Structures are given as C-alpha cells and as structure tokens.
C-alpha cells in the first residue's frame, strides 16, 4: 500500500517488523520503520517523557540538496506552522543535524479515508461529518493564504476517534506565489480530482481548485465511485472539463444541489467556503471548531469559553492568566518554532523571512514590552487593542490598500528572554516597511539596549538548539 507523505514523497508501507533501538535527542524512542521513499524514511516513535506515539520523518540533507528540494522543505515547514488545526495532521517540531532533518509529526492511527471508501459508500451522516471537518480545515488554510492543491481520500487520515485529519502539504502553495495576474499556473494534483480550469492551463484560483476537489471527495464518499471516470485519461479529462456527471438516485435533493455548486465548471460562480458553511445540507449537526493550542495540544472551547476565543483567522496559541498573579503567561517556543523563526538551512534556519514579519529578542518584562508597543502606537496615532500577550496596532488613516494593521505577539524563548513577533495583517507592504524602519525597530532596539539582558546584535539563529542530535541507524544496522 502506498501513502503520500509531505514533500510529495510517496511512502511505501512495509510489513517488515523491524525496530531501530535508538534515542533521538534523549526524548524520542525510535520504533519500527513505517515506510520509506526516495528522500525520507518514516519511523514510529515514542515520547519517553509522555509515552505518546509520534511519527518521525527523517530526511537526508544531501539527497534534498541534490534533488533541488530545499525550497519545498522550507515552504512546507512554513505552511505547517501556519495551519495548526484539529483537523490537520500536526507537525510538532523540526530538529536538524549536519546530515539529517527530523520532522516530529502527529501519529494518526486510523489510516486513510480511502480505505473506508474502498469497502463501499458511506452513510450520509458519516459522509457529512467528514465533509464538515474537511471544509473546516480547508477554510482555515485558505484564511491563512495556504492552498492544498492535492485533496483526495488518500490524503485524508482518520485518528483513533474517527476524526478526519488533512495530510500531505507537499504540493501546497501560499498566496506569496501568486503571479501578477492574481492566479497560480503550476499544473499539479491527482487527475480524477483536478479542477477543469487547471486542465485549461490559463491560470487558476487555488481556493476554487480546492473547493472542486472537496466536491469530488464528497461525491465519492456518498456514491462509492468517482463522478468523472474513464479508463482513457483524455476522455476523463473531457468529462471533467465539461462537468459531465450524474448524481445517483439515493442522493437527497439538497445534496445534489450542493454538489452541482461544488462541481460548477465556472470557478467564478462555483460555491465559496462561507457559502458552503451556510448550506442547508452542510449545516445539519455542524459545530464550528473553536480551539486554542498550548504545549502542542489542542483544547476545544465550548459554552462561555467560545466568547473568549479568537476568530478563525487568529485562532492560534491563547495566552492564559497565571493563577493568582493576573499577569499574562507568554506561550513558550519549542525547537520547531525556534528553527522556523531563523534563516538558512541547518540549525541556522529552514526558511526565510517573507518581508512582512519581523522578530526581536528582548530581556524586558512582558508589561514593559507591551508598554513600549503602546508608546510607539501613540507617536503615530495608531489605535491599540490588547489581549494577554497579543497587541494589535491599527492606523486610523486609509492607506493605498486600506488602513495599516499590525499584530504583535510575545513568546517565551527562555525564562529570561522573550521573542516579539510582529507581522502585517492588513494594509500596504511599503507602508508597513516604512513604519517598521522609522518607528518600530528603533523603539524596540531602544528597549533592548536599556535592558542589557541580551546582545541586541545577536541574531536569533545563533540560539543553539540541538547540536548533537544522534543519527538514526540505517536499516542494515
């Protein structure tokens, strides 16, 4: 059986019951080989502190460099950091040595959704539940400028509770890759699930392409077969291009109408994610996912807690109050976060800055950092909104692309050091860069100079993480 893992690497599942007695970073006990591909091997592992199972993907740096896949690896890490969601396979952390890169991932026990469908069509309630969870995850990705581009049942996994997890972001794209015409042009995806506009090779809206794939998946779950199929792939492409499909008689009228909107060959009139969420068939029994993340764990928000949650476009790590102190507790960073903050390709980094994010190290107390951000905002007449360790700065002036809006978040690097992450969330990029250079950077540098707790010229990549990560032995050892 083949399983597609991130980086477009196809993993061949092996029945070989071998174990690799090794301890990775003194934290993960490496178990059996789950599968391997050209550039990676995936092992089952156990966190010796918590006893929890994880999957560790081991990538060979030399092979990656020779294969020209550095950009893919960097982009994948960047994407997986953006899209932490209960219905997306989680990447816990990334570790590196001179020769290897280690992805510590969530271990999903239930296998592919494809295996369920291969046994026959699903009941409507089950299909609806999986479709709801998939749309929640895809909508979450789109809100962060991430587009999967290879959605299919093989890339949808099920955990031990029967909940869906979207996996394999190897073909994913981000909004930064859009050309000047506002479209993507890379031909990719799996033939039976690819949208007609991708076949046209004239550029496409990646969000609408994902929605088409979701429509094909919903049809497969309910029918047990593909809406567009033919042994001749060119004939199948013609059917897709013309949108030629029929709903079986057991489909309800509401479901048939939804599928007609999902599989609309015109991407302009094709249904959108917000419209799907308002659809009558979709809404039956649907609960909007509200959650926060702490220590790499998802916590759902229910009842009164929902009112305190962030919106879907900001629902990341929620800073809770320390009991009895009334001071916000900053979210701590693991090795994955720290490596992803820095530049380069070894321990000095795995992806580069986008130009719309800046990070600063400070030894100042949290209240002093927040006060400095308020002071900077006051100088330029920006409005300020605060929530624990998050500060939003909003211009009152209409810029070239609307008012400039900036989000700042404080993370704990060590008990005595903080990382201040600042990013543009609205407005013009040029105006943001000017604000950073003229106001933000001088103000925060002054704060760092005052503290004497950290060398202000010390780049984040000089923070040493794991210089002696042991290599996983080869299969022959």
Automatic annotation (TrEMBL):
It comes from the Eukaryota. CDD domains: CIPK_C, STKc_SnRK3. InterPro entries: Kinase-like_dom_sf, NAF/FISL_domain, NAF_dom, Prot_kinase_dom, Protein_kinase_ATP_BS, Ser/Thr_kinase_AS. The keyword Transmembrane applies. Residues 328-352 form the NAF domain. Residues 28-282 form the Protein kinase domain. Its cofactor is Mn(2+). ATP binds at residue 57. GO terms for biological process: signal transduction. One of its GO terms (molecular function) is protein serine kinase activity. It is an enzyme of class 2 (transferase). Pfam families: NAF, Pkinase. Gene3D superfamilies: Kinase associated domain 1, KA1, Transferase(Phosphotransferase) domain 1. It catalyses: L-seryl-[protein] + ATP = O-phospho-L-seryl-[protein] + ADP + H(+); L-threonyl-[protein] + ATP = O-phospho-L-threonyl-[protein] + ADP + H(+). The chain crosses the membrane at residues 209-228. Its EC number is 2.7.11.1. Signal peptide: none annotated. Keywords: ATP-binding, Kinase, Manganese, Membrane, Nucleotide-binding, Phosphoprotein, Serine/threonine-protein kinase, Transferase, Transmembrane, Transmembrane helix. Belongs to the protein kinase superfamily. CAMK Ser/Thr protein kinase family. SNF1 subfamily. CIPK serine-threonine protein kinases interact with CBL proteins. Binding of a CBL protein to the regulatory NAF domain of CIPK protein lead to the activation of the kinase in a calcium-dependent manner. PANTHER family: CALCIUM/CALMODULIN-DEPENDENT PROTEIN KINASE KINASE-RELATED, CBL-INTERACTING SERINE_THREONINE-PROTEIN KINASE 12. This is non-specific serine/threonine protein kinase.
